[in-house]
């Protein structure tokens, strides 16, 4: 389904033209920032619904909120979500073992953490992209990219063609753009999988609580509004083909019912298998440059990690911010500029990916004396610095 609006015509003098492939958090964010700078931006998204209805909840750390503020959507996000500043660790029976104050990675004027319903965040970003004047086509993919020294010619799935000064691949974990430009890195499973569901928020839930042990590695929940939360249970990977989607609610409820505290209140709402999501954890880190010629990757197309630090969306949003800053700096859009983007991002991204992986591996290996708190603290201190 294509957007029928007229393509914005670049003014005389040659406004830069950019194609963004993928309308997730990073693609939407970079579109908003480049349109604000007056560039002509096309955004294509493979899904006709623009991912506006999928997902249960999302945990946003302060460094993600910092970028959302830069996008001009912080007030809407704050009104839609649930902010908090601490993390609880419980025994499987619900006994609170300790509560730690979260590090405010976005600065003291932003909450340490905010939970919100993922579809609401997506809708806020969609509305802002629309308002920016970007040309959006849904249900559309890039079928071929042909580069020369001056730009990229793109053939689309609807049969149309167009030419751009730059193409940004924000098409996620299984990025076709990444493969099309010859980057052979692919995501790999970590050995863990997660069950997620949205549910009503018990009044006593005012922060994220995590229970380690029991029948799963982790059982946790995060408030996403005054009335909602999302709950999750992490276990070892199972063959997805062996699990009937009609049994998703039964499977998650079976794992969740072994946990105490507020879990019985949550578990009674795990009834509709269509509202339960089952996903493997994957990891990816493209170590080499994230561009080839005039095509550059951002977000999950370049890196992803298990959500043990809740940094996936934050890293993707930071990518968009840094790339947009460089593209609007007045410098030539050449190899040096795009290498600068990679060089600024890779140390920070690598630290988060490796820390997220280490936490998961300690759990897989059953390491009892792992310094998870220390690793989390060191990583979060790093993320307080501007990207």
Structure explained in plain terms:
By secondary structure, the chain is of the alpha+beta class. It contains ten helices and 20 strands. It starts with 16 loop residues before the first strand and ends with a helix.
Beta-strand segment tally: 20
Task: Assess the beta-strand content as a share of residues.
Answer: 25-35%
In angstroms, what separates the terminal alpha carbons? 36 Å
Radius of gyration over C-alpha positions, nearest whole angstrom? 21 Å
Cross-sheet strand order for the largest sheet: 6-5-14-15-16-13-17-20
Oligomer: single chain
Low-confidence stretches: 1-13
Order of helices and strands: EHEEHHEEEEHEEEEEHEEEEHHEEEEHHH
Assign an overall shape: globular
Sheet having the most strands? 8 strands, mixed
> What is the SS-derived class?
alpha+beta
Question: Averaging pLDDT over every residue, what do you get?
Answer: 94
Q: State the helical fraction.
A: 25-40%
Separate helix tally: 10
Topology at a glance:
Elements: E1 17-21, H1 25-36, E2 40-45, E3 57-61, H2 62-70, H3 74-80, E4 82-84, E5 86-90, E6 96-101, E7 113-117, H4 118-132, E8 135-138, E9 142-148, E10 151-156, E11 161-164, E12 166-169, H5 176-180, E13 188-200, E14 208-212, E15 218-223, E16 228-236, H6 248-256, H7 263-267, E17 276-285, E18 291-292, E19 295-297, E20 303-304, H8 312-327, H9 335-365, H10 372-383
Parallel strand pairs: 1-2, 1-12, 2-8, 5-14, 12-19
Antiparallel strand pairs: 3-7, 4-7, 5-6, 9-10, 10-11, 13-16, 13-17, 14-15, 15-16, 17-20, 18-19
């Amino acid at each position: 389904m294509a957007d029928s609006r007229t393509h914005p015509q670049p003014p005389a003098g040659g406004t830069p033209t950019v194609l963004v492939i993928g309308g997730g958090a990073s693609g939407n964010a970079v579109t908003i920032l480049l349109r604000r700078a007056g560039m002509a931006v096309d955004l294509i998204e493979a899904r006709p619904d623009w991912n506006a209805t999928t997902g249960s909840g999302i945990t946003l750390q302060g460094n993600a909120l910092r970028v959302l503020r830069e996008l001009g959507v912080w007030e809407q996000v704050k009104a839609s979500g649930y902010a908090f500043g601490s993390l609880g660790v419980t025994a499987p029976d619900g006994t609170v073992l300790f509560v730690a104050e979260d590090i405010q990675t976005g600065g003291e004027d932003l909450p340490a953490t905010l939970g919100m319903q993922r579809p609401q965040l997506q809708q806020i970003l969609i509305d802002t992209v629309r308002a920016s004047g970007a040309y959006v086509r849904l249900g559309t993919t890039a079928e071929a990219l042909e580069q020369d020294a001056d730009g990229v010619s793109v053939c689309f799935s609807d049969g149309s063609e167009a030419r751009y000064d730059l193409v940004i691949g924000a098409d996620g974990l299984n990025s076709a753009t990444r493969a099309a430009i010859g980057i052979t890195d692919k995501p790999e499973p970590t050995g863990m999988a997660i069950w997620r569901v949205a549910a009503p928020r018990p009044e006593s839930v005012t922060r994220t609580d995590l229970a380690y042990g029991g029948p799963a590695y982790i059982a946790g929940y995060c408030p996403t509004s005054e009335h909602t939360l999302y709950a999750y249970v992490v276990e070892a990977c199972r063959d997805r083909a062996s699990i009937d989607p009609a049994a998703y609610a039964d499977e998650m409820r079976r794992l969740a019912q072994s946990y105490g505290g507020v879990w019985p209140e949550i578990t009674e709402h795990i009834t509709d298998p269509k509202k339960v999501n089952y996903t493997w954890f994957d990891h990816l880190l493209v170590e080499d440059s994230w561009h080839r010629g005039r095509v550059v990757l951002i977000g999950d197309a370049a890196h992803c990690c298990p959500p043990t630090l809740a940094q996936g969306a934050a890293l993707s949003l930071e990518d968009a911010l840094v790339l947009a800053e460089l593209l609007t700096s007045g410098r030539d859009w050449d190899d040096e500029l795009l290498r600068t983007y990679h060089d600024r991002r890779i140390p920070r991204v690598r630290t988060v990916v490796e820390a997220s992986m280490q936490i998961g591996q300690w759990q897989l290996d059953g390491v009892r004396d792992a310094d998870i708190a220390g690793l989390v603290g060191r990583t979060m201190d790093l993320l307080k610095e501007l990207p």
